[in-house]
Specification:
The chain has about 100 residues and is mainly α. Helix content is about 65%, strand content about 0%.
Length: about 100
């Protein structure tokens, strides 16, 4: 968002730091709530190669970021409805990516 001018650089740096701290704190909360090892696994489907998984993730992430830039960063009188479009984009990306890259 800083690169396209939608967010000042200082605020972007503070936002990045707060996102990292929020992730660490939420991981600590999950660790306390669920003691013991978690039985989870992330791997590609047997029919997908590592390169295919990389490109699937890259294209779906690009789709989501583009949607956010077009709906939320662009100031317009219809911006209030942006969360619906972003949610639909995330839903479509999950439906598409879960078949070959169930991470």
């Amino acid at each position: 968002m800083c690169l396209v001018g939608a967010l000042p650089w200082l605020r972007g740096a503070l936002l990045t730091l707060s996102q990292i701290l929020g992730g660490i704190i939420s991981a600590a909360i999950v660790s306390v709530l669920f003691p013991g090892p978690l039985n989870v696994r992330t791997s590609l489907s047997p029919t997908a190669t590592i390169a295919q998984g990389l490109f699937i993730e890259m294209f779906l992430t690009t789709q989501l970021v583009f949607t956010i830039f077009m709906l939320a960063a662009e100031k317009h009188k219809g911006t209030f409805i942006a969360p619906i479009g972003i949610g639909l984009s995330l839903f479509i990306a999950e439906l598409t990516g879960v078949q070959e890259d169930p991470t």
